[in-house]
Amino acid sequence: MNIAQKLISGHLVHGDLTPGGEIAIRIDQTLTQDSTGTMAYLQFEAMGIERVKTKRSVAYIDHNMLQSGSENADDHRYIQTVAAKHGIVFSRPGNGICHQVHLERFSIPGQTLLGSDSHTPTCGAAGMLAIGAGGLDVAVAMGGGAYYLTMPRICRVYLTGELNRMVSAKDVILELLRRLSVKGGMGKIMEYGGPGVKTLSVPERATIANMGAELGATTTVFPSDERTRDFFSARGRAGQWVRLEADPDAEYDEEIELDLSSLHPMAAQPHSPDNVVPVSEIAGIKIDQVCIGSCTNSSFCDLMRVAGILDGKRVAPDVSLTISPGSRQVLKALAKNGALAKLVTAGARVLECACGPCIGMGQAPATNAISLRTFNRNFYGRSGTPSAGVYLVSPETAAVSAVEGYLTDPERHGTEPPYDVPERFEIDDGMLIMPPADGRNVDVVRGPNIKPFPRAVPPAETMSGEALIKLGDNITTDHIMPSNAKLLPFRSNVPYLADFCLSPCDPDFAARAKAKNGGFIIGGENYGQGSSREHAALAPLYLGVKAVLAKSFARIHRANLINNGILPLTFADAADYDAVSEGDEIVIAEAPAQIAAAAEGAAVTASIAGREVELRLDITPRQRDILLAGGLLNYTREHRED
């Protein structure tokens, strides 16, 4: 077996390892963050389960950190109290970004992790099967339910060679995005192997695993080997390390070869992570801002390389440089060895250990500014400034460019200064609050901004309404439900958020949906790529959207639509997508019967502007029952086993 097959087979509760079939796996651990966590815990409470049934569940506060009003602080208080009541570890604000902290403190090779964040696959760097999902799927897993998914194809990325100076793991994943695009990993697990793997540290592997989400992959896995053992030993967890490697005769569905020594610094240009070119081809662009950090590049190793490059230099006078350490452990280590002082002396603005600018929570660039970021996404408007041009680069490229004031190829700028990795990091889990053994007497505190979430209902006999909007390819969840410093505090208030649904595409969409009593959304290829935020399904649900008709769907968003009772329909003939227009009347007659038949492979027939159109609803019998029940929450309550 390969590594992915070993991980899946060890947790399989339904199905087999044949790609394309439905499987269900047992979940050992879950994680949430505060942007998605409030909704996930409201859904968990609605199930009526007293205590989580996982081996470990952790609630992180790392997204909504700016407290310009009471909303974020109220949500944090709710999450802390609900975590104590139901047996969930609580990571306090300032302890760090969920993926970095989980990798450091809770990752265990061979276990499964389900997280309400699309970058949960970061922990695949430590030999976990770590998958991002919607909050409702995570809530079900916390209650002991299995996680259902389509068995992915396994693609081996065979690495040879070794990275050259000033070339980093970020350049590895950017090169793969250049080759494969944001759709290239759909329906796949990316498994890394070959002699080149052993040259990569766990933090470097984490960068690659993290941005596997940008490929559209289900997850990314690395072996658990001697490099993994060293990572665990340095963090006082040697006893939790186990070896996990592919068998010598393991087979794969696909294979990609990549010679690490052939790589050069890369950059993703606006406004997509796969719009990648070598830095050398676009060097010389005047820059205004550099942001280093995020769950992709905020490790001790990343920031030590940055500190070495900046040592004795100054940030260009017209460049703003920010540094976001990934965890309190990283920040303390940098303070202890003097690297933090080098960053500050060079002119860096050190932000708290949080997601910050990556999710639009502060540090929005100036009008028409050029921002270099070591983050994972550069979608239009995600930075908070729609007119800004955001480039994704490595920490080395970012640091050198911050000094020069122009996008600069770091390979032409000297050597990478050496640094030492501690044999043992200082361990301080003081900002992790363990739940009491019995939480029944804990009072859950709910702020006034926490509103009931919209509940799906079983489908009507006839679904009818207008095509409310027609969209193109690669519409992201940032388009569907924008994420910025003004809206993030309202993640627990879907009625408020719904007014901004699809506003980057059409500011009048929400008002039109309300006036028309709901209807349908028309999308192109890869509809719903990006974040796992189920608000991109909850807001349309609140507005009365009955179905999304698209050419294809991103994995997590498609699951979120089904979980919330919204039909994810695909055009059987692309010409029908071309023919449909905004305002067309759409009617799906005998909807429950057609949904039931779809699970057996039948097409769904709809009338669009009087034309009969054939649509596909690719669902399993279980997903059929979820849709007919009016969503996963209703289905789970009906099938719950106490």
UniProtKB/TrEMBL annotation:
The protein's required cofactors: [4Fe-4S] cluster
GO process annotations (BP): tricarboxylic acid cycle
CDD domains: AcnA_Bact
SUPFAM superfamilies referenced in this protein's UniProt entry, alphabetically: Aconitase iron-sulfur domain, LeuD/IlvD-like
A GO molecular-function annotation: metal ion binding
InterPro entries attached to this UniProt entry: Acnase/IPM_dHydase_lsu_aba_1/3, Acoase/IPM_deHydtase_lsu_aba, Aconitase/3IPM_dehydase_swvl, Aconitase/IPM_isomerase, Aconitase_4Fe-4S_BS, Aconitase_4Fe-4S_dom, Aconitase_put, AconitaseA/IPMdHydase_ssu_swvl
Enzyme Commission code: 4.2.1.3
Stretches assigned to the Aconitase/3-isopropylmalate dehydratase large subunit alpha/beta/alpha domain: 6-281
UniProt keyword annotations, A-Z: Iron, Iron-sulfur, Lyase, Metal-binding
Keyword Iron: yes
Record keyword Metal-binding present: yes
PROSITE patterns from the UniProt entry: ACONITASE_1 (PS00450), ACONITASE_2 (PS01244)
Pfam family of the protein (one): Aconitase
GO cellular component terms, semicolon-separated: cytosol
EC class of the enzyme, as a word: lyase
Domain Aconitase A/isopropylmalate dehydratase small subunit swivel span(s) in chain numbering: 520-573
Subunit relationships: Monomer.
Family listed: Belongs to the aconitase/IPM isomerase family.
Name by which UniProt lists this protein: Aconitate hydratase
Source species of the chain: Candidatus Scatomorpha merdipullorum
